[in-house]
Amino acid sequence: MDQKKAERLKLIQQALQDQSAIHLREMAALLEVSEMTLRRDLSKYGDQLRLLGGYITRVHDAGEPGEYRVAEQDTRHVEEKRRIGKLAAQFIKAGDTAFFDCGTTTPFVIDFIPDELEFTAVCSSLNVLLKLQQKPNCSIVLCGGTFHRKNQVFESAADTSVLDQLRLTWAFVSAAGVSQEFGVTCFNLNEVQVKQKVLRQAQQRVLLADHSKFDNVRTAYFATLADFHCVVSDKKIPRAYREAFAAAGTQLVV
What we know:
Elements: H1 3-15, E1 21-23, H2 24-31, H3 35-44, E2 49-52, E3 55-58, H4 78-89, E4 97-100, H5 106-111, E5 119-123, H6 126-132, E6 138-142, E7 146-148, E8 153-155, E9 168-174, E10 177-179, E11 183-186, H7 192-201, E12 202-208, E13 220-223, E14 230-232, H8 239-248, E15 251-253
Parallel strand pairs: 4-5, 4-9, 5-6, 9-12, 12-14, 14-15
Antiparallel strand pairs: 1-3, 2-3, 7-8, 10-11, 11-13
Helix pairs in contact: 2-3
């Protein structure tokens, strides 16, 4: 099998782990190939993928033994999240140690990390762990503790944890709300301790948030906008935030 075709097939399959279908045009743009090239690829893998009404879907089967689906996966703004993931993945270099936060945006970052890249990943959630284990050259550190099914997070109530022994090159942190007045927030208080700790210990702090998160405030506060060196979002981010990031010297990647 042609190596490039095989790599495209793998990326398509990874994308379809988080939704039931993806538009041909969007996938071609993400893979940086023409729609015709992608159509030819799909024609060779008719036993695994199919094209219906311009959308790529998987051929339904019983699935692999032990295959896991994240419960109640948030599939809103998937196109924006995938684009954010692709942009953020470019930061990671060989030898880096990166923390990947819980949520539904960070798994897309992992999708776009090359399989051959050797790096260390730290995580505290099950859905992110399942993505990382697909990367053969990734060393994984899991922050253990009590498992919360609602948001798939492992929480440790101990004053010290594995994070105390680590110094991170990157912290990729997700949020449910981003507000100039009220700061950066999430839904669940059990996420706050880990988020704040990695923000203290990371050399580069990156906020991952699509446009729908801006001007929203959620229950659990964990950071100010100034705590981040970089914000990776989409092109629909409100102008007021673009201007605020520029004034503060915060890098905005869209």
